[in-house]
Design brief:
Shape: globular
Radius of gyration: 17 Å
Low-confidence stretches: 1-47
Mean pLDDT: 81
Number of domains: 1
Helix content: 40-55%
Number of strands: 7
Strand order of the largest sheet: 3-4-7-5-6
Length: 230
């Protein structure tokens, strides 16, 4: 089966999550996986795309952001800024299957099919997903000094080329919805990964639903980013 290699990696990542230590955020009291433990394993197992550079490159993105009048987070304040954003995103997505994952100063919202609710062969956002995105958008608007990458995914039905295009449409649909809720478009970039990054088995209908998903990566805009882009 063509999903087997990626799925094996995903299973290894899940196993790492189950065995790695957690650390407690001193400000929020929330626990998260240590950056040297499970999340490193998860990202490594998924090919490292979550730890790659920003979609479209950092300097070009930052130039647009500067033009939109968005500032940067001072170096010493980045950790606290992202701590607070993590806390607010956890509260905003409470009661859903959304996972707020912390890696260093970056945040990842993993939104599986049980949250995203994409129909087969569709990029249309269903009402339950819009409700979650409404809450996420409010938090993103409260913390404007961040880049936002939106990743789209599909199940294994259909050709690789078709699924790649479908995943991009899903990512774009989420980006457009966030913009409609006030998030500055200059902050957002999108990318589709097709069927290449499953988080569940494509051998079952339930697994396929989980794989029809999006992920949102949130990265602080630093003064170094601004200085390099000028």
């Amino acid at each position: 089966m063509k999903f087997s290699k990626s799925l094996t990696a995903g299973a290894a990542a899940i196993a790492l999550m189950g065995t790695s230590a957690c650390v407690t955020n001193p400000e929020t009291g929330n626990q998260r996986v240590s950056t040297t433990g499970a999340i490193g394993g998860v990202v490594g197992a998924l090919g490292g795309y979550l730890l790659g550079d920003l979609i479209g490159g950092r300097n070009s993105r930052t130039e647009e952001i500067i033009g939109a009048g968005i500032g940067a987070v001072a170096g010493a304040a980045i950790g606290t800024y992202m701590d607070r954003q993590q806390r607010d995103l956890e509260q905003a997505t409470a009661g859903t299957d959304t996972e707020v994952i912390r890696e260093g100063d970056n945040l990842y919202l993993q939104m599986p099919g049980s949250v995203a609710e994409f129909d087969v062969d569709s990029a249309q956002l269903r009402p339950i997903f819009r409700q979650t995105l409404d809450e996420v958008a409010q938090t993103l608007n409260a913390y404007p000094e961040t880049y936002i990458d939106v990743y789209g995914h599909t199940d294994s039905d259909g050709s690789d080329a078709y699924n790649l295009a479908l995943s991009q449409r899903r990512a774009q649909a989420v980006a457009d919805y966030l913009v409609a809720r006030g998030v500055n478009r200059a902050r957002i970039a999108t990318q589709g990964f097709g069927e290449s990054q499953p988080i569940a088995s494509n051998a079952t209908a339930a697994g396929k639903q989980q794989n029809r998903r999006v992920e949102i990566r949130i990265v602080p805009i630093t003064q170094n980013d601004v200085n390099s882009a000028r």
